[in-house]
Write a structure and sequence with these properties.
The chain is an alpha/beta fold. The protein has ten helices and seven strands. Helix 8 links the parallel strand 5 and strand 6.
Length: about 300
């Protein structure tokens, strides 16, 4: 699906965003985190408390295919000097490979039904992987997951570890759960183009998450197609992006007038990932994101 009208940053705003990044006072922006409602290990309340203790001032909760934790996180944030940005990370497919699209500031009511469908798809996928593991001789049961929780491969990895079938999280993925491994099941066919269109229709700003983790083609080749489909931003700053890749993504954002975002993709302590607030991103990245969301919701304003 092609979206013909794509709100762009004006050149002055974009140049200011590019110029300000990395200098001046930091406001501690963290725009990619997960809670127990997807594959994180902390409750939304614990995540907000951990973020506040780390000096984060603006936190986006972007669980996979669910916004179930956003209300709890927002309520908790009121007791701290912290602003909660509602978000989601959609699991989509592009060229037959997994592609994640972040959505910021969605209308949760309008997104509820589509996410409920995505959640059901995740449950079916988890069951299919459990069935594969059983046929391989590794009988497992997932722990009871709460209402609105999106089951994922990390839940299966923890179950394998708890059952003593593997010695580490990494072994679970290397032997069973990684793409192409014996127990792997791909996502239900939900294209990146449809994911972008869905987010925009719900007032959310669609952003390509961790582009250099995408295995379906070079970033420079894929990005123009996503922009044509309505993509509005790129996650430039991510733990798996080298500095040279960050710089290249900055250039591409300038070329296509795209928003810049970033975050640690935090899933909880002790998981080998960067600590919250590792990038210390400045507030200058937030204002254009909020303005883009407002334009989607109220295009007649401004």
């Amino acid at each position: 699906m092609v979206v013909k009208t794509v709100p762009r940053l004006n050149r002055a705003t974009l140049e200011k965003q590019q110029r300000t990044f990395g200098v001046g006072p930091y406001i501690m922006l963290e725009l990619h985190c997960h809670s127990q409602y997807s594959d994180g290990t902390l409750t939304p309340t614990q995540l907000v408390q951990t973020a506040a203790a780390a000096g984060v001032k603006v936190l986006a909760l972007t669980d996979h295919d669910t916004m179930s934790g956003c209300l709890e996180a927002a309520e908790t944030a009121q007791g701290y000097d912290l602003t909660l940005v509602p978000g989601v990370e959609l699991s989509t497919v592009y060229r037959g490979r997994s592609m994640h699209i972040l959505g910021f500031y969605p209308d949760g009511d309008r997104l509820e039904a589509p996410l409920r469908e995505r959640l059901q798809g995740r449950k079916q996928r988890a069951q299919q992987m459990l069935d594969k593991l059983h046929r391989l001789g590794y009988a497992l049961e997932l722990p009871q997951l709460g209402e609105g929780v999106a089951p994922s491969r990390p839940h299966l990895a923890r179950a394998l570890l708890a059952a003593g079938y593997v010695n580490s999280w990494e072994e679970a993925f290397d032997r069973f759960l990684g793409e192409g491994k014996p127990a792997y099941v791909g996502y239900a066919k939900f294209s990146a183009e449809d994911g972008i269109a869905l987010l925009r229709s719900c007032g959310a700003v669609p952003v390509w998450a961790h582009p250099y983790l995408f295995a379906g083609g070079p970033v420079e080749e894929v990005l123009p197609h996503l922009v044509e489909a309505g993509l509005m931003g790129v996650e430039v700053y991510h733990p798996h992006h080298r500095r040279s890749q960050q710089e290249r993504l900055q250039q591409l954002c300038q070329q296509y007038s795209l928003l810049i975002t970033g975050g640690t993709d935090y899933h909880g302590p002790g998981l080998g990932a960067k600590a919250l607030n590792s990038f210390a991103l400045p507030m200058s990245l937030l204002a254009p994101l909020k303005a883009a969301a407002a334009h989607l919701k109220f295009p007649e304003v401004g």
